[in-house]
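REVIEWER CHECKLIST
Item 1: Sequence provided? yes
Item 2: Single chain? yes
Item 3: Sequence as submitted:
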Amino acid sequence: MDILLVASAFNSLSQRVYAELSDLGHHVEVVLATHGPDAVRSAVRDRRPELIIAPMLKTALPGDVCRDHTCLVVHPGPPGDRGPSSLDWAVAGQAPRWGVTVLQAETAVDAGAVWASEPFPVEPVGKSDLYRNEVADAALTAVHEAVRRYAEGSYKPVPQSDPSIHGRIVWRDVFRQTRRRIDWAADDTETVLRKLRGADSQPGVLDELLGRELFLHGGHPEDRLRGRPGELLATRAGAVCRATRDGAVWIPELRPRKTSGDPAPFRRPAADVLASPGLPDSPAPLELPPDRRTWTDIRYRQRGDVGYVTFSFPGGAMSTDHCRRLLAAYEYALARPTRVLVLGGHRDFFSNGIHLNVIEAAPDPAEESWANLNAMDDLVEAVLRTTDRLVVAALAGNAAAGGAMLALAADEVWCRTGAVLNPHYRRMGLYGSEFWTYSLPRRAGAETARRLTEEAQPVSAATAARTGLVDRLLPVPAQRFAAEVAELAAELAAAPDLGRRLVAKAAAREADEARRPLAAYRKDELDRMRALFFDPAAAYHSLRSDFVRKVPGGAR
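Item 4: Structure as written out by the authors:
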């Protein structure tokens, strides 16, 4: 069918809906609702879709569009749930299970007939992590079912007046900051963590620190540091530790409240926002005992012949500091006696490449872009030059731009089926680096590499596997991914032909280096990128600013 997606942002869920419906042979196009109702009407008039789907919508569809066309809205709540903050209420209320419902759009919000619904478990993770994983898995199951039912033409959607739904109708209002506010003297650690996780990406928890109004983003427990409730105790890898009534929590990111001087502030590492708060640094060793309950964004562990470098950065973005510390961890892992090395997090993002927020906030964004990119290149080159063991990139979640190229530098890429890849740079006005001109054609072929980078569209995990970007698909829920990777990695390390594979790998790297050294790929890519970074008129600078400040209608 011809399907039009209407979305307030081309976010992770919208991209996954686009990619998976395209995989099924549907012709899918996208219009951003932020361009206004007339833009939506124009897209409907010009493209004449058979079906309209709104996977992520913050404003109502135009009434005439809903009247004249079948429009399906994805609502992150079970049948009968209504309101704009459904997932917030589920996290705050510690609901063990929740659901996603595909509704027919009507004038009344969330009141349309039900085309499909799917339940999911509410894991004790941040709301954004939950949204990209359990919610997205359920949403795609429901969307596929709704599209199939619509295509068949015989299904009658269930009106919400039906007794099976009507008795469960609940309107949940906007989840406001008054409900999110933390009482540091009264709230215990688990309550603080629940409030922080319920707003980790958006909108954050409004609070006051060092005399400034700031939004707190993300929260992780700390088992040893203690202080007066609300007191800042330490920094670690850009995060700050703050005391609770009965413990402490780590807060990775902060966002200043809007002021007349900066009408669109954005998230970045907490210690950077506070600008040298004078706190002691609390380094976390790469290897931690299993009974520790503390936060760090990079860890190493070893199980037999398998080493694991796990990392998790907010939003998947990797700053200069992230890249350098991850490279140090990788080099630490190379010094350990293993035969297989696994890179990746337990769930959620793998990597989205350079950290645009940190770059935007830098005194000289061009210089910071250059430093960040070179640090990312150093990391990717280290992976490409590893020949004494097999390296596996384990993608629990999405990867984009340089983060996708980091994955492709590994010998094998294992990917959860719900992940989406964006192996391109064009939408940020960049040529790209991270050895993409070597890794992408090597895996997908020159023609597919050209198409992926020029079309600059999201790619489902299934399509990534078909085109050679992914070697193994893992059809498991997010909470099972790490255990599945561990089982497969142990099998790989014990494989009788591993020694032969390592010999062949070293020979292939030597032959590739003789044909064209990695240094030549790096120089050509960086020459192009440097010209863009240091050109004030380059589109990259305005696109970056719009992206980090979430300017409506900016680069998607």
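Item 5: Key structural point noted by reviewer: The longest strand covers residues 97-104.
Item 6: Recommendation: ____
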